[in-house]
């Protein structure tokens, strides 16, 4: 399937789609993906809630019996403590990271929009070594407004 300009020659085996047909096809695909993703999220939430309910008596049993693992016919159950961290004061946390040279605490990911806005507002500042700008051509298809 191809989209062609008016008056252009086309191969006989290829179906020509209008821009309207292409836009409708993309909207249909986006809608189908959204529906499947919603269905998957709902299923995952339901199953995870059930798993959480099943964990309660297992954790209680293991704590009461001082066990950290249990062998069953179906598999081994291991009790472990996962620690996660969050901050309620980013300024203090950034200061701590700088003071202790602990930048490995942070994800190595650039916030694209913030970088773009910074260089748009500071057009005399040049990109630092290692920063690459990658431009992509993309289209967005939205439903018409009524």
Report on the structure:
The mean pLDDT is 90. The protein has 146 residues and is mainly α. A hairpin with a 4-residue loop joins β1 and β2 (76-78). The chain has one domain (19-121). The protein has helices at 19-64, 90-99, 112-121; strands at 69-71, 76-78. The protein has three helices and two strands.
What distinguishing features does this structure have?
146 residues, mainly alpha, two-stranded antiparallel sheet, 3 helices, flat
- How much strand content do the residues show? under 5%
Q: For the record, give the distance between the C-alpha atoms at the N and C termini, rounded to a whole number.
A: 30 Å
Q: Write down how many β-strands occur, each being a DSSP E stretch of 2 or more residues.
A: 2
Give helix and strand order, one letter per element, not per position.
HEEHH
Mean pLDDT: 90
Described by strand count, sense and barrel closure, the largest sheet is: 2 strands, antiparallel
The helix fraction, in percent, is 40-55%
Give me the secondary-structure category.
Answer: mainly alpha
Rg, alpha carbons: 27 Å
Strand order of the largest sheet: 1-2
Provide a count of the helices: 3
Shape: flat
Number of domains: 1
- Uncertain ranges: none
Short description:
The chain has 146 residues and is mainly α.
Topology:
Elements: H1 19-64, E1 69-71, E2 76-78, H2 90-99, H3 112-121
Antiparallel strand pairs: 1-2
């Amino acid at each position: 399937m191809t989209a062609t300009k008016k008056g252009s020659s086309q191969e006989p085996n290829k179906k020509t789609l209008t821009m309207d047909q292409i836009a409708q096809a993309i909207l249909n695909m986006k809608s189908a993906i959204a529906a499947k993703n919603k269905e998957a999220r709902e299923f995952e939430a339901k199953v995870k809630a059930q798993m959480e309910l099943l964990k309660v008596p297992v954790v209680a049993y293991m704590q009461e019996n001082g066990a950290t693992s249990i062998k069953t016919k179906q598999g081994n159950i291991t009790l472990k403590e996962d620690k996660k961290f969050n901050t309620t004061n980013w300024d203090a946390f950034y200061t701590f990271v700088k003071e202790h040279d602990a930048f490995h605490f942070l994800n190595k990911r650039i916030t694209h929009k913030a970088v773009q806005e910074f260089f748009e507002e500071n057009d005399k500042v040049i990109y630092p070594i290692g920063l690459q700008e990658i431009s992509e051509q993309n289209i967005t298809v939205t439903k018409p407004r009524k």
